[in-house]
Amino acid sequence: MAIVxxxxxxxxxxxxxxxxxxxxxxxxxxxxxxxxxxxVGSGRTTFCSAIMGxxxxxxxxxxxxxxxxDGLNTEKSxxxxxxxxxxxxxxxxxxxxxxxxxxxxxxxxxxxENLGTPRKEMIKRVKKMIKxxxxxxxxxxxxxxxxxxxxxxVAIASVLIMQPEILVLDEPTAQLDxxxxxxxxxxxxxxxRKGITIILNTQKIDYLxxxxxxxxxxxxxxxxKVGKTREVLTDINLLKKNRxxxxxxxxxxxxxxxxxxxxxxxxMTLNDAKEMISKVKRG
Length: 283
Ligand SMILES: Nc1ncnc2c1ncn2[C@@H]1O[C@H](COP(=O)(O)OP(=O)(O)OP(=O)(O)O)[C@@H](O)[C@H]1O
Ligand SMILES: [Mg+2]
Description:
This protein folds into two domains: 2-239, 3-Layer(aba) Sandwich (Rossmann fold); 247-283, no CATH class. It is built from 13 helices and ten strands. The chain has helices at residues 44-52, 54-57, 79-83, 93-96, 104-114, 119-133, 148-160, 178-193, 205-211, 229-233, 236-241, 248-258, 270-282, and strands spanning 2-13, 21-29, 33-37, 61-69, 72-73, 86-89, 166-170, 197-201, 214-219, 222-228. It has a six-stranded mixed beta sheet, with helices on both faces. The protein has a four-stranded antiparallel beta sheet with strand order 2-1-4-5. A hairpin with a 7-residue loop joins strand 1 (2-13) and strand 2 (21-29). The radius of gyration is 20 Å and the shape is globular. The structure holds adenosine-5'-triphosphate (ATP) and magnesium ion. Residues 44-45, 171 line the site of magnesium ion. Adenosine-5'-triphosphate binds next to helix 1.
């Protein structure tokens, strides 16, 4: 069942010379882990903002077509209605923290307090969330004193605690080091298993290769391809045409095929590569 539906959707920022999203037709299913990849400045952040309703409610501009999110037409619905269904995580971890609380527990309580959630329910949800994100030993720490990866986990938790149906992540690890990146991707993987719809824009295609159900290429303001993760990420020519670098595993397997050292399919993940190497060794 589709939970996000772009129907011939186009978007023009006021005063900007051309459309930043052009004729987007795309359905994302409930519970799906959906990846977005594409070139620099191709409109991927705008795509994420549109699902949250920042486009058109925060940024002025013009929509053609429509975008339906969990039954709501984003143009006709309010941001507050949309925010009960969608949570958005952005690149920079610290700017997403409210600073309203002295510690992680208080930071997580903030949104629920604003909604007037009963205290007992709030304590229960905060406790559950701290366990889910694995920050038990940090719950009394000031969120601003945590590492980037830990801060991003707190930011994700503060969105999740509002129980959105859909989690949109716009390059959530772009500013994190490899350890922080792994922390955040492990958390996203855990969430995907719980059945939340995840829409993830990232340049880190190795992680999408491991987790995503489907991937879309958004380039030069248009959707160039939507397909099963393996179909998209092992299509070297398609990726090249869209200025996306294929994974090291795919490149390695392609090289071995070209040199006639390997006869199987192109690799996408580390596991694929391990299997390929044992086949090559066996001759
Ligand atoms: N608030 C805005 N007002 C006007 N133009 C904007 C606004 N936000 C983005 N743009 C323009 O829209 C285009 C697409 O930007 P967007 O941030 O959506 O792309 P992106 O694919 O996320 O890029 P990046 O690779 O830098 O993350 C850019 O040319 C940008 O200048
Ligand atoms: Mg962006």
